[in-house]
Amino acid sequence: MEIGKKIMDLRKxxxxxxxxxxxxxxxxxQTISKWELGETSPxxxxxxxxxxxxxxxxxxxxxxxxxxxxxxxxxNTEKLAGLILKLIKFIVVFIIIAPILLIALRIxxxxxxxxxxxxxxxxxxxxxxxxxxxxxxxxxxxxxxxIKEAGGDGYLANITNIGKYEDAYQxxxxxxxxxxxxxxxxxxxxxxxxxx
Length: 196
Fold this sequence. Notes:
By secondary structure, the protein is an alpha+beta fold. It has 3 domains: about 60 residues, 434 Repressor (Amino-terminal Domain); about 50 residues; about 70 residues, no CATH class. The chain contains 8 helices and 5 strands, in the order ααααααβββααββ. Strands 1, 2, 3, 4 and 5 form a 5-stranded antiparallel beta sheet that branches. The two termini are about 90 Å apart.
Protein backbone atom coordinates (compact mmCIF):
# COMPACT_ATOMS: atom_id res chain seq x y z
CA MET A 1 0.00 0.00 0.00
CA GLU A 2 1.32 3.43 -0.97
CA ILE A 3 1.72 6.19 1.60
CA GLY A 4 -1.09 8.24 0.02
CA LYS A 5 -3.63 5.43 0.42
CA LYS A 6 -2.41 4.85 3.98
CA ILE A 7 -2.84 8.58 4.82
CA MET A 8 -6.39 8.51 3.42
CA ASP A 9 -7.27 5.33 5.36
CA LEU A 10 -5.85 6.69 8.63
CA ARG A 11 -7.54 10.09 8.07
CA LYS A 12 -10.92 8.45 7.56
CA UNK A 13 -10.34 6.05 10.45
CA UNK A 14 -9.69 9.04 12.70
CA UNK A 15 -12.79 10.89 11.32
CA UNK A 16 -10.85 13.81 9.88
CA UNK A 17 -11.57 15.75 6.72
CA UNK A 18 -8.73 16.82 4.39
CA UNK A 19 -9.14 20.39 5.72
CA UNK A 20 -8.90 19.29 9.36
CA UNK A 21 -5.85 17.15 8.71
CA UNK A 22 -4.21 19.94 6.68
CA UNK A 23 -4.73 22.34 9.57
CA UNK A 24 -3.19 19.93 12.09
CA UNK A 25 -0.15 19.24 9.87
CA UNK A 26 0.19 22.90 8.88
CA UNK A 27 -0.22 22.47 5.12
CA UNK A 28 -2.87 23.38 2.55
CA UNK A 29 -5.83 21.06 1.88
CA GLN A 30 -4.56 20.58 -1.70
CA THR A 31 -1.32 19.16 -0.27
CA ILE A 32 -3.31 16.50 1.59
CA SER A 33 -5.23 15.77 -1.61
CA LYS A 34 -1.98 15.41 -3.61
CA TRP A 35 -0.56 13.07 -0.97
CA GLU A 36 -3.67 10.91 -1.04
CA LEU A 37 -3.65 10.79 -4.86
CA GLY A 38 0.01 9.78 -4.83
CA GLU A 39 1.13 12.87 -6.74
CA THR A 40 3.50 13.92 -3.95
CA SER A 41 4.59 12.57 -0.58
CA PRO A 42 5.08 14.23 2.78
CA UNK A 43 8.62 15.13 3.77
CA UNK A 44 10.15 13.61 6.89
CA UNK A 45 8.96 16.43 9.18
CA UNK A 46 5.41 16.17 7.83
CA UNK A 47 5.48 12.36 8.05
CA UNK A 48 6.57 12.66 11.67
CA UNK A 49 3.65 15.02 12.37
CA UNK A 50 1.21 12.63 10.64
CA UNK A 51 2.62 9.82 12.76
CA UNK A 52 1.76 11.81 15.93
CA UNK A 53 -1.72 12.75 14.69
CA UNK A 54 -2.63 9.18 13.74
CA UNK A 55 -0.81 7.68 16.73
CA UNK A 56 1.03 5.37 14.35
CA UNK A 57 4.71 4.65 13.80
CA UNK A 58 6.51 5.91 10.70
CA UNK A 59 6.89 2.28 9.65
CA UNK A 60 3.12 1.81 9.87
CA UNK A 61 2.57 5.07 7.98
CA UNK A 62 4.72 3.98 5.05
CA UNK A 63 3.40 0.43 5.40
CA UNK A 64 6.84 -0.94 6.25
CA UNK A 65 6.06 -4.20 8.01
CA UNK A 66 8.86 -4.15 10.58
CA UNK A 67 7.63 -7.42 12.08
CA UNK A 68 8.56 -9.31 8.90
CA UNK A 69 12.01 -7.72 8.91
CA UNK A 70 12.55 -8.64 12.57
CA UNK A 71 11.31 -12.17 11.99
CA UNK A 72 13.64 -12.54 8.99
CA UNK A 73 16.62 -11.15 10.93
CA UNK A 74 15.83 -13.41 13.88
CA UNK A 75 15.47 -16.39 11.56
CA ASN A 76 18.82 -15.63 9.90
CA THR A 77 20.48 -15.23 13.29
CA GLU A 78 19.04 -18.56 14.45
CA LYS A 79 20.28 -20.26 11.27
CA LEU A 80 23.76 -18.82 11.76
CA ALA A 81 23.80 -19.87 15.42
CA GLY A 82 22.70 -23.38 14.38
CA LEU A 83 25.52 -23.61 11.85
CA ILE A 84 28.06 -22.39 14.40
CA LEU A 85 26.84 -24.98 16.94
CA LYS A 86 27.12 -27.75 14.34
CA LEU A 87 30.65 -26.62 13.48
CA ILE A 88 31.64 -26.55 17.17
CA LYS A 89 30.17 -30.05 17.69
CA PHE A 90 32.08 -31.34 14.66
CA ILE A 91 35.35 -29.84 15.93
CA VAL A 92 34.84 -31.28 19.43
CA VAL A 93 33.97 -34.72 18.05
CA PHE A 94 36.99 -34.56 15.72
CA ILE A 95 39.31 -33.58 18.58
CA ILE A 96 38.03 -36.50 20.66
CA ILE A 97 37.74 -39.14 17.96
CA ALA A 98 40.84 -38.36 15.84
CA PRO A 99 43.40 -39.47 18.47
CA ILE A 100 41.37 -42.60 19.23
CA LEU A 101 41.24 -43.47 15.53
CA LEU A 102 44.97 -42.85 15.13
CA ILE A 103 45.76 -45.13 18.06
CA ALA A 104 43.41 -47.82 16.74
CA LEU A 105 44.93 -47.61 13.25
CA ARG A 106 48.44 -47.83 14.68
CA ILE A 107 47.50 -50.97 16.64
CA UNK A 108 45.80 -52.50 13.60
CA UNK A 109 48.75 -51.81 11.29
CA UNK A 110 51.20 -53.06 13.90
CA UNK A 111 49.23 -56.30 14.23
CA UNK A 112 49.00 -56.66 10.45
CA UNK A 113 52.75 -56.05 10.17
CA UNK A 114 53.48 -58.59 12.88
CA UNK A 115 51.17 -61.19 11.31
CA UNK A 116 52.73 -60.64 7.91
CA UNK A 117 56.21 -60.83 9.43
CA UNK A 118 55.74 -64.33 10.79
CA UNK A 119 56.16 -65.67 14.29
CA UNK A 120 58.15 -63.86 16.92
CA UNK A 121 61.38 -65.79 17.36
CA UNK A 122 64.30 -65.68 19.81
CA UNK A 123 67.96 -66.48 19.25
CA UNK A 124 71.22 -65.83 21.08
CA UNK A 125 74.76 -65.48 19.88
CA UNK A 126 77.70 -66.11 22.20
CA UNK A 127 81.16 -65.08 21.08
CA UNK A 128 84.65 -65.46 22.48
CA UNK A 129 87.14 -62.76 21.52
CA UNK A 130 90.54 -62.11 23.18
CA UNK A 131 89.71 -64.64 25.92
CA UNK A 132 86.50 -62.77 26.82
CA UNK A 133 82.95 -64.07 26.29
CA UNK A 134 80.20 -61.81 24.99
CA UNK A 135 76.55 -62.50 24.33
CA UNK A 136 73.71 -60.85 22.47
CA UNK A 137 70.04 -61.83 22.21
CA UNK A 138 67.41 -61.00 19.58
CA UNK A 139 63.62 -61.26 19.47
CA UNK A 140 62.71 -60.96 15.81
CA UNK A 141 60.04 -61.81 13.26
CA UNK A 142 60.71 -65.06 11.50
CA UNK A 143 59.75 -64.05 7.96
CA UNK A 144 61.23 -60.56 7.73
CA UNK A 145 63.94 -60.73 10.37
CA UNK A 146 62.62 -57.44 11.76
CA ILE A 147 64.03 -56.90 15.23
CA LYS A 148 61.45 -56.38 17.95
CA GLU A 149 63.90 -56.38 20.87
CA ALA A 150 67.64 -56.84 21.15
CA GLY A 151 70.16 -56.57 23.94
CA GLY A 152 73.33 -57.89 25.42
CA ASP A 153 76.94 -56.89 25.95
CA GLY A 154 77.53 -53.25 25.13
CA TYR A 155 81.07 -53.98 23.95
CA LEU A 156 79.79 -56.33 21.25
CA ALA A 157 77.13 -53.83 20.19
CA ASN A 158 79.63 -50.97 20.02
CA ILE A 159 82.38 -52.69 18.07
CA THR A 160 79.97 -54.09 15.47
CA ASN A 161 77.56 -51.12 15.44
CA ILE A 162 74.63 -53.55 15.26
CA GLY A 163 72.20 -50.97 16.62
CA LYS A 164 71.86 -49.54 13.13
CA TYR A 165 70.53 -52.81 11.68
CA GLU A 166 66.80 -53.60 11.63
CA ASP A 167 67.23 -57.18 10.40
CA ALA A 168 68.27 -59.78 13.02
CA TYR A 169 69.69 -62.13 10.40
CA GLN A 170 71.97 -59.38 9.09
CA UNK A 171 72.98 -58.28 12.61
CA UNK A 172 73.89 -61.86 13.56
CA UNK A 173 76.01 -62.23 10.41
CA UNK A 174 77.79 -58.93 11.15
CA UNK A 175 78.66 -60.01 14.70
CA UNK A 176 79.79 -63.44 13.54
CA UNK A 177 81.97 -62.00 10.73
CA UNK A 178 83.58 -59.35 12.94
CA UNK A 179 84.47 -61.79 15.70
CA UNK A 180 85.85 -64.41 13.24
CA UNK A 181 87.88 -61.74 11.37
CA UNK A 182 89.48 -60.78 14.68
CA UNK A 183 90.43 -64.32 15.73
CA UNK A 184 87.35 -65.18 17.80
CA UNK A 185 84.53 -67.69 17.57
CA UNK A 186 80.75 -67.47 17.84
CA UNK A 187 77.95 -69.94 18.42
CA UNK A 188 74.29 -69.24 17.75
CA UNK A 189 71.39 -70.89 19.50
CA UNK A 190 68.67 -72.30 17.31
CA UNK A 191 65.90 -69.74 16.78
CA UNK A 192 62.84 -70.69 18.82
CA UNK A 193 59.36 -69.16 18.94
CA UNK A 194 58.88 -66.71 21.78
CA UNK A 195 56.32 -67.91 24.32
CA UNK A 196 53.51 -65.43 24.81
